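Backbone-to-sequence.
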């Protein structure tokens, strides 16, 4: 098939630091190329891919994130070439699918965000012209009656995550510095246990800095080591040696890539019961799902008794790159078959 993949424009693919969606798009592009498809990726010009790369800008405009102009030009760069493809797979924000709904070429839009009232209203307005994919059954249930083709989970490249049975004594938190990700809870848990915490975070936007200053910094002691954005190799190494990863989210997370990255290295996860967490963690096998901070404190010791091999095997079977690519190819074929049947 001739496939057009649209990544968000704000960060390159694969990401050099922050960028969960960008990582997923990169893995999908490379996997599709490996399977012989003709793939064009629309992403920032500093992206790296074996697919054909088309971009509206030379460097990812991360400092302009959220502004309309770069996102609109990016979407138009892709959709003005829509006739070149059998199917377009859009992973971008709201502007891309808003343009794509009027495309003559079939468009699959993967929903990467939460089902806010605004998002549900918009996507219901675009339902006439798009097919949708959810990244978890929880997310799918929240969006309601859209034209869903499937639920296809995100994935990791197992080869990029070194497996280790031998763990060090630190706990790990990795996520944006905002209340939804719950860094303040991770620090609280580590303090209660008297444990070292490695806190890897993105903290550049004003709201992120304000949250850190008011909610996290007052809790800090010498047991907490703060790291900024790190490259993928360093990140994988930190995951592999952690005793346990804390995922204290305070919002209905649609997926949670951090959890499968951790488990891929053999490191269990203790997570709050929010959103898609029960779909991602095998409770009492690859981690523990808890409801309170007190339960999270108690679960850390239990998580460290879990078998790292079980964590790794679980991710290989459920969240591998090959599985994700095959599922998306099946979705593309389903969309094309439905279009063909409708035309007949």
């Amino acid at each position: 098939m001739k496939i057009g993949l649209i990544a968000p424009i704000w960060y390159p693919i694969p990401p050099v630091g922050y960028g969960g969606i960008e990582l997923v798009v990169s893995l999908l592009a490379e996997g599709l190329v490996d399977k012989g498809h003709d793939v064009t990726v629309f992403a920032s010009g500093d992206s790296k891919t074996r697919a054909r790369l088309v971009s509206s800008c030379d460097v990812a405009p991360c400092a302009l994130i959220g502004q309309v102009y770069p996102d609109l030009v990016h979407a138009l760069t892709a959709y003005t070439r829509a006739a070149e493809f059998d199917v377009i797979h859009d992973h971008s924000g709201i502007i891309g699918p808003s343009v794509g709904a009027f495309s003559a070429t079939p468009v699959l839009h993967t929903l990467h965000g939460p089902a806010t009232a605004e998002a549900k209203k918009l996507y219901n307005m675009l339902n006439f012209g798009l097919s949708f994919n959810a990244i978890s059954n929880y997310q799918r249930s929240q969006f309601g009656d859209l034209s869903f083709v499937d639920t296809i989970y995100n994935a990791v490249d197992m080869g990029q995550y070194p497996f280790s049975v031998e763990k060090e004594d630190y706990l790990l938190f990795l996520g944006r510095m905002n209340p939804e990700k719950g860094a303040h809870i991770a620090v609280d848990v580590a303090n209660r246990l008297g444990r070292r915490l490695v806190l890897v975070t993105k903290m550049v936007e004003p709201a992120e800095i304000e949250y850190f200053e008011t909610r996290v910094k007052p809790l800090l002691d010498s047991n907490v080591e703060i790291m900024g954005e790190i490259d993928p190799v360093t990140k994988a190494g930190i995951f592999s040696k952690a005793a346990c990863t804390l995922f204290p989210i305070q919002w209905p997370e649609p997926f949670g890539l951090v959890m499968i990255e951790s488990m891929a290295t053999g490191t269990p996860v203790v997570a709050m019961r929010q959103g898609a967490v029960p779909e991602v963690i095998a409770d009492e096998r690859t981690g523990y799902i808890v409801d309170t901070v007190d339960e999270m404190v108690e679960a850390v010791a239990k998580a460290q008794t879990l078998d790292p091999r079980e964590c790794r095997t679980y991710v290989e079977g459920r969240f591998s790159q090959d599985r994700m690519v095959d599922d998306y190819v099946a979705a593309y074929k389903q969309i094309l078959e439905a279009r063909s049947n409708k035309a007949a």
